[in-house]
């Protein structure tokens, strides 16, 4: 024996609203709880909840007269409510379209920002120069390692200064990469490839 399929909440709302539209009268809750099962197949236990949801959505009107509470709904009111809801949806759709255009413009602007810049080129040039200078200083230190200790000490200091400068520029490159990844949502591998940063690029030890 197959189970009887239940009525969805939305279907119950439709049926009770149809009942009020068809009757075009004023009802107390007890009357609706009696008519709901009889005429629309909506169990009496759920009528109160269904009617209240229709009231909350402005589809059913309600008024307390003395000690009694009455409910009613006319087709003309339903049409008006649906027109307002349609207008609201159309407005939200238009806002979503405008937001989409703004996002597309932002994406386009972000794409322009990924192009090579003069600042980046200058940083890479400075880094290459610092590396070359460090190599020259290391070579000089090697020549004088058996000579005057004071000269060796001075050269070592220059080498340390060059090393610090080189790593400072390396730090600048990493900061720019971090900013670019966050600003334009780029993966590090893509960023390195696009801006010519070699594999294994790291601080000088």
Question: Keywords, please?
Answer:
2 domains; 72% helix; 205 residues; rod-shaped; three-stranded antiparallel sheet; Arc Repressor Mutant, subunit A; mainly alpha
Describe, in short, the structure shown.
By secondary structure, the chain is mostly helical.
Plain-language structure description:
- The chain is mainly alpha-helical and 205 residues long.
- It has 2 domains: 9-77, Orthogonal Bundle (Arc Repressor Mutant, subunit A), CATH 1.10.10; 109-194.
- The protein contains 7 helices and 3 strands, in the order αβααββαααα.
- It has a 3-stranded antiparallel β-sheet with strand order 1-3-2.
- A hairpin with a 2-residue loop joins strand 2 (61-65) and strand 3 (68-72).
- The chain is rod-shaped, with a radius of gyration of 39 Å.
- The mean pLDDT is 79.
**Structural class by sheet pairing and helices:** mainly alpha
Strand order of the largest sheet: 1-3-2
Tell me about the largest β-sheet: 3 strands, antiparallel
What's the overall geometry?
A: rod-shaped
SSE order: HEHHEEHHHH
Q: Which percent band covers the strand fraction? A: 5-15%
* pLDDT averaged over residues: 79
Separation of termini? Answer: 81 Å
- Runs with pLDDT <50, length 5+? none
Helix content range? over 70%
Extended strand count: 3
For the record, the count of structural domains works out to: 2
**How many distinct helices?**
7
C-alpha Rg (nearest Å): 39 Å
